[in-house]
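[Automated response] Your request has been received and processed.

Submitted sequence:
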Amino acid sequence: MKRLADFLAALVGLAVFAPLWLVLAVLIQLDSPGSVLFRQVRVGRNGREFVLLKFRSMRTDTPHLSTADLKSSGLEPYTRVGKWLRKTSLDELPQLWNVLMGQMSLVGPRPALPSQIALNTQRETLGVLALRPGITGWAQVNGRDNLSDDEKVARDVEYLQRQSLWLDLQILVLTVAAIFTAKGNK
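Generated structure:
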């Protein structure tokens, strides 16, 4: 049931947001050279890697690090349009394609980078990697970037234990609210 709902929502989302995608693509190209889309390998369901899509919000010479690692390195990797894309979470829209392809769900644990070994190991040990990763999740509406890896995994486990379509709907509503307030977004 969840996969069907994800598929239909992604299909509708891709159609509805197509004009916005065109505008964002033009803005990204005018702001800085490089591809409109950013592709990054992430750890998905059952530990299988997949290529996650985002609108490019960083300069093309930015190292492939987690948000926390980028922040602690002191780098300022974001383009002018990219800062706005990140703040509004519009950079995540291309992940509707990942949902359509079955690599992601609308709601689930956010997929980690393969280099985040401790986080991925914890998730594997606690059964979280059995879930399809999501565009948004329980950790994102309960702290997002303000959470440590241990706290994120605890929220992921809580989601694993409580998962339901009702909880997914609540998370989607809370996500929209978090986007408008930029709560927890660094």
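Summary generated for your ticket: The chain has one domain: 2-180. Residues 5 and 166 are 12 Å apart (CA to CA).
If you did not submit this request, please reply to this message.
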